[in-house]
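A reminder from the course coordinator: this example appears on the midterm review sheet, so study it carefully.

Given structure:
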């Protein structure tokens, strides 16, 4: 009985020590709970886990799987696939090809796909400068109008398709429509709809002029429609949305149309603040149990999270200071 009691005590001490080590590594209570509830990563998926190009970082996969399993358990989704994004990765990989930082994972099908995606470009304001470069994201926020990415939990919602203008294709002026996938968030991401945050193809029509086309359903009261150049910004920056190549967009939209699933975006506010603190104090991220893409951390030095309570008043003040602009009138196309 004494030996059995000593064994039980030693086992409990080891469990407590393990929990303390995980907490010290910055994983927190929620990931501990998620780790206990989420099934073990299958062997076929393990080979895709890592920090190399085309792989998914362990913490990103862990949280994405935990979110997916939680939502399935709640009956909120039935989709066999889930989505994830690592916004700490660079926009371009070696050789100049778009960097892959958005993941489509279908465990039941043993399918893993990594594609490119844009991140929020931010703004440069007089009272605050929170813009991001083309290669790596430094600034993050959930403030409306910040044009920044916000990490955390999302669930895909309905899609909306809208007319963006005419462009030239095969010698003809053709209308361009773009489909936008809305996200519903929770916690720090709960204002996703307010911010118009979602996913869509990384392409838009840069208006140049207007031409007469009264038979078009998109014509204005005078019978004109906008015309411009089709601009592709795959793997570049966005207004805070996830933006994909046209081919990847078709697959993602087909996957979630009428069948919502989860999307987890890394990093969250706590991750950003923890990494920033570690960098400023000279601590090793690995020893601290923290993660940031090494290439981008070297480029940005210290990441920064701008809380909504701090940034929103600055953005609102800037908007109110803008002079009223006359309505845009495009010139007639020649």
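Designed residues:
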């Amino acid at each position: 009985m004494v030996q059995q009691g000593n064994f039980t005590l030693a086992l409990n001490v080891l469990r407590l020590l393990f929990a303390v080590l995980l907490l010290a590594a910055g994983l927190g209570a929620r990931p501990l709970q998620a780790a206990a509830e989420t099934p073990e990563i299958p062997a076929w998926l393990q080979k895709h886990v890592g920090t190399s190009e085309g792989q998914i970082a362990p913490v990103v996969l862990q949280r994405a799987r935990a979110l997916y399993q939680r939502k399935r358990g709640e009956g909120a989704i039935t989709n066999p696939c889930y989505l994830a994004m690592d916004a700490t990765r660079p926009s371009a990989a070696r050789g100049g090809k778009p960097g892959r930082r958005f993941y489509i994972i279908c465990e039941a099908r043993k399918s893993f796909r990594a594609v490119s995606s844009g991140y929020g470009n931010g703004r440069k304001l007089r009272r605050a400068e929170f813009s991001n470069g083309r290669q790596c994201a430094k600034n993050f926020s959930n403030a409306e109008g910040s044009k920044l990415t916000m990490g955390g939990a999302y669930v895909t919602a309905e899609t909306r398709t809208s007319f963006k203008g005419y462009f030239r294709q095969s010698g003809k002026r053709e209308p361009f429509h773009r489909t936008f996938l809305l996200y519903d968030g929770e916690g720090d991401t709960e204002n996703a709809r307010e911010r118009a945050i979602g996913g869509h193809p990384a392409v838009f029509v840069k208006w140049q002029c207007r031409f007469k086309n009264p038979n078009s359903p998109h014509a204005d009261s005078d019978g004109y429609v906008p015309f411009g150049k089709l601009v592709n910004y795959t793997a570049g920056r966005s207004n805070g949305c996830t933006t994909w190549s046209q081919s990847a967009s078709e697959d993602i939209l087909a996957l979630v149309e009428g069948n919502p699933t989860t999307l987890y975006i890394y990093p969250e506010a706590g991750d950003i603040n923890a990494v920033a603190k570690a960098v400023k104090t000279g601590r090793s991220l690995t020893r601290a149990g923290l993660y940031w893409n090494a290439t981008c951390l070297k480029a940005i030095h210290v990441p920064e999270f701008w809380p909504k309570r701090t940034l929103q008043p600055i953005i609102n003040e800037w908007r109110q200071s803008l002079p009223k602009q006359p309505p845009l009138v495009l010139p007639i196309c020649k």
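Residues 1-37 form one domain. Confidence is low (pLDDT under 50) at residues 1-36.
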